[in-house]
């Protein structure tokens, strides 16, 4: 078994993961062992007077393209999941996830305490592998208290259908082989383009909204209540080490980049 680290584009630490946060995923449900041998099988048959070689062709795999809003039931599930985050009620997650024991309400409350709404939710899906039926990349906006600009976010959620055919957000552990294949999906051109577009829009928002930028700087330090806000004349040497690192990271904005990390949290975003 392996802990699955969902790729994370961090906008502000301790409030919300942008782009694919981290959680443990469990192997209940489906199991795929080993790997398929895609080598064509060649059989030699002897006839008189000619030897004939026949080959079994390998089927061409269907392309796993990124689909936008292809599953209405997935959209409804995802919307209910984000609504439940704002309710701060563990029971609200019971019919939404595969294992409610992975829900940590203290972490959810900490990460959503500044969030007033999740809006414009769009679900992009790819076929999953192993015990995962679908991978859902969720693009949405967060309304943050005291911040005028809605914050664009991108989360990766894993979907598994239960025995009745209803989709659930998968939480637990996964097989090593499944983990590796899920990580590979992030490098697909269509997923990479979605991530890049999200990064670019986040960077533009940080450049144009000083309140959002200050909020991001404070939370990148990991101690938003104590970290001072830098003034225009302050440089990295004038700040505590953690805040200085956050300020230096802002130089990436000129290159249309934001920090990307794997965060071993216990639950999704």
Describe how the helices and strands are arranged.
Layout: E1 7-12, E2 16-18, E3 41-46, E4 51-56, E5 67-68, H1 72-87, H2 105-112, E6 115-127, E7 134-144, E8 151-161, E9 167-169, H3 176-185, H4 189-208, H5 210-220, H6 241-249, E10 260-262
Antiparallel strand pairs: 1-2, 1-10, 3-4, 5-6, 6-7, 7-8, 8-9
Helix pairs in contact: 4-5
Can you put this structure into words, describing what you see?
This protein has a domain at 7-28 and 63-198: Nuclear Transport Factor 2, Chain: A. It is 28% helix and 24% strand. The protein has helices at residues 72-87, 105-112, 176-185, 189-208, 210-220, 241-249, and strands at 7-12, 16-18, 41-46, 51-56, 67-68, 115-127, 134-144, 151-161, 167-169, 260-262. Strand 8 and strand 9 (167-169) form a beta hairpin. Helix 4 packs across helix 5 (210-220).
Any key phrases for this structure?
269 residues; alpha+beta; Nuclear Transport Factor 2, Chain: A; three-stranded antiparallel beta sheet; 6 helices; 10 strands
């Amino acid at each position: 078994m392996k802990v699955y680290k969902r790729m994370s584009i961090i906008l502000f630490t301790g409030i919300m993961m942008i782009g694919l946060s981290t959680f443990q995923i469990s192997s209940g449900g489906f199991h795929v062992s080993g790997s398929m041998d895609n080598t064509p099988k060649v059989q030699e048959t002897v006839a008189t007077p000619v030897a004939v070689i026949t080959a079994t062709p390998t089927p061409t795999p269907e392309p796993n393209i990124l689909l936008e809003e292809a599953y209405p039931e997935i959209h409804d599930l995802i919307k209910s999941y984000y609504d439940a985050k704002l309710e701060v009620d563990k029971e609200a997650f019971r019919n939404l996830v595969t294992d409610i024991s992975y829900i940590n309400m203290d972490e959810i409350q900490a990460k959503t305490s500044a969030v007033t709404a999740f809006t414009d939710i769009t679900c992009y899906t790819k076929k999953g592998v192993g015990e995962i039926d679908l991978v859902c990349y969720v693009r949405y906006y967060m309304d943050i208290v005291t911040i005028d600009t809605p914050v664009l976010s991108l989360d990766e959620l894993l979907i598994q259908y239960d025995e009745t055919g209803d989709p659930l957000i998968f939480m637990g552990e996964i097989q090593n082989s499944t983990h590796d294949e899920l990580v590979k999906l992030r490098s697909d051109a269509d997923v990479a383009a979605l991530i890049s577009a999200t990064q670019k829009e986040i960077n533009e928002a940080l450049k144009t909204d000083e309140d959002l930028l200050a909020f991001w700087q404070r939370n990148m330090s990991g101690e938003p209540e104590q970290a001072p806000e830098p003034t225009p004349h302050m440089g990295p040497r004038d700040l505590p080490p953690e805040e200085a690192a956050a300020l230096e990271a802002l130089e990436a904005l000129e290159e249309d980049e934001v920090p990307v990390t794997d965060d071993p949290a216990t639950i999704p975003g």
